[in-house]
Design goal:
By secondary structure, the protein is of the alpha+beta class. It is built from four helices and three strands; from the N terminus they run H-H-H-E-E-H-E.
């Protein structure tokens, strides 16, 4: 889908939900559509600016440039070059910030997955293991009248039995201690939603007993 089409669709759906059109229960999810719209517009703007700047540079290097005899054309050429440079700088700053944010989120998710896997095995004495880290997001919420940053972790574990509440709390506390040890301090508390998928252990295989061979009489 072209970037402008994607931006138009997601922006329209997001604004429609903000204004109350459609399902009222989905109004809070409007930002989930506006964020992709911003990303699509960023992609369109990057393509537009870089293609226009590259085309102008190629024409300039090949000698296709307006004559300097007319000052009006000279002013237009200089102004166009300045505008292109400013737009390129703005796009570079936005893309640099987006790249830095995505890299930080990927590093946080990898550290959370490692800490969660280690905590599950440690608390359950290697009876359970992490199957999948579904999501890990930091949200702002009001706790006792104060705004706090809450790290919400949703994951799936595989275990022979359900985990006890004390085990889940211990896993959550170990994750917090491990993340703080890694240098993450941009959250105030952790909420862990851990779904357990049970599996059955098969009994150990019993080797077959040897069948004695009949002894043939000797002549």
């Amino acid at each position: 889908v072209p970037p402008l089409v994607s931006a138009g669709i997601t922006f329209t759906v997001g604004v429609g939900r903000i204004l109350g059109f459609g399902d009222p229960g989905q109004v809070e999810q409007a930002w989930e559509h506006l964020i992709p719209a911003g990303g699509a517009m960023l992609l369109f703007g990057t393509n537009f600016v870089t293609i226009a700047a590259a085309s102008g540079l190629v024409f300039f290097l090949l000698g296709f440039r307006p004559t300097t005899a007319i000052k009006v054309r000279e002013v237009v050429r200089v102004r166009a070059a300045q505008i292109s440079a400013v737009l390129l700088l703005i796009n570079a700053l936005i893309l640099g910030y987006a790249t830095f944010t995505l890299t930080a989120e990927s590093a946080l998710a990898a550290d959370i997955e490692q800490a969660l896997s280690h905590s599950i095995r440690s608390v359950t004495d290697n009876e359970a293991r992490l199957d999948q880290l579904e999501s890990a997001v930091i949200v702002r919420g009001m706790v006792d009248g104060e705004e706090e940053r809450i790290l919400i972790i949703t994951a799936v574990a595989i275990a022979p039995d359900d985990l006890k509440d004390l085990q889940s709390a211990e896993i959550r506390d170990q994750i917090g201690a491990n993340l703080i040890g890694e240098g993450y301090s941009n959250f105030d508390q952790i909420q862990l939603s851990l779904q357990v998928r049970k599996f059955q252990t098969s009994p150990p295989a019993v080797p077959p007993t040897p069948t004695p061979l009949p002894v043939l009489p000797t002549s």
